[in-house]
Amino acid sequence: MSIRVVVGSMFNVLVVTLMLLQFGGDGSPCLQNDNVSGSGGSRVCGPGSDAVDLSAPPGTPAIDGGALDAGATEDWLGAVMARIETEEYNASVSASGLQAPNRAHNLRTYFADGGIEVVPRTGEAEDAWSFSWRTLGWGREGRLVDVTTVSVAPRVDGSRVSYDREGLEEWYENKKEGLEQGFTVMERPAGEGPLCIEGGVGSGLRAEFDSDEAGIDFLDRGGARVLRYAELHVREAGGREVPSCLRLKCNRVAILVDDAGAAYPLTVDPLMTSPAWTAESNKESAGFGYAVGTAGDVNGDGCSDVIVGAAYYDNDQVSEGRAYVYHGSTGGLAVSPAWIAEGNLAGSLFGYAVGTAGDVNGDGYSDVIIGTPGWDNGQTDEGRAYVYCGSVAGLAVSPGWTVESDQAGAALGRSVGTAGDVNGDGYSDVIVGAPYYSNGQMNEGRAFVYHGSAGGPAASPAWTA
Question: What pLDDT is stored for residue 19 in this prediction?
């Protein structure tokens, strides 16, 4: 759909053209017609698409003949765009059933009688995973009311889908922040002990608590976290938060609530989210992600980039190591790396340490620093560090600077980083660690700082300790 908005006066005219094209979940285009007015609109979509109804609400100024009525304002245009963004999260019936897409988290949720299934919204079929939830019972722990005996059909209201049971409403709100799951418990159940809501999850993903047991991560067969169930909040009728926690046992997740003294109804509200971006090496035992960090903005496009080390990557040499840089954009990180480099020496462990170097040569582009503690060049495991300089095209193919310890076993490059601008000359400096450096004491270790300049870091350290 094309909307041509003209806002003007005797002295100036502003013309704004919006090209709006929705694509469905199956890749088919969804085109809105050019007649958008308060009286309605139409759409033409492929099967299973995530269409957005652009019919303007009552009282909205009409767009006629390509120009906006004189009474319309930028607020109207903002409202239309906000409505488009909101309505793409609405649930709708497709050939596969009632579903709701979530572009922000790359999720698609299917709502069936009694339960849900969450799958990737896009991606390769062989990488597809599936998460399912079916509420099994609720009440006092050990004395739950079985809710699986009665089939309950979902009820839809925009982006909210509900399952209405006696005494318990289970609901889902699909939004940019993730898929919000909620339960509204109408009245206090009889008996003592914590309130418990228990659900069964499918066996396709491995469930495990995070380090502080505040959330549950669901991992695919490769060990990658694809879904997180966390941010549990329970509130009583007056809005006060009520103590609660999660419990995981095999393929069952229980929400436990200490409702002593709480005023009903209670709202139980966890959130399901997925990582905004993931990447893999697709190489056995490569150690992808052994070291990670910001790369700064290596191509000067205003978006930060990231660097990932895979210290044990094998290509032509065993454990030579590899580093990857992924460019950022307004849509997030790229799927494929924009830059890759390798150690090209067996056992060198290139990418053991990675990070931004700052702007070591003052050209306005961020540079990166990479450590290779297993590097041999005259001395075994002396180690080496590299700096690759950024540019409008991204990182250079060859390093702009390297340094070695010239001492066997020193493992220079086991840690690397930017030192900021330690001497205030306008150039970033770098710091490199050699944890097994010996100088009077065996393996006492040493740190080196190299000053930046227009030509990059200096060949000799300006400071050691």
Answer: 33
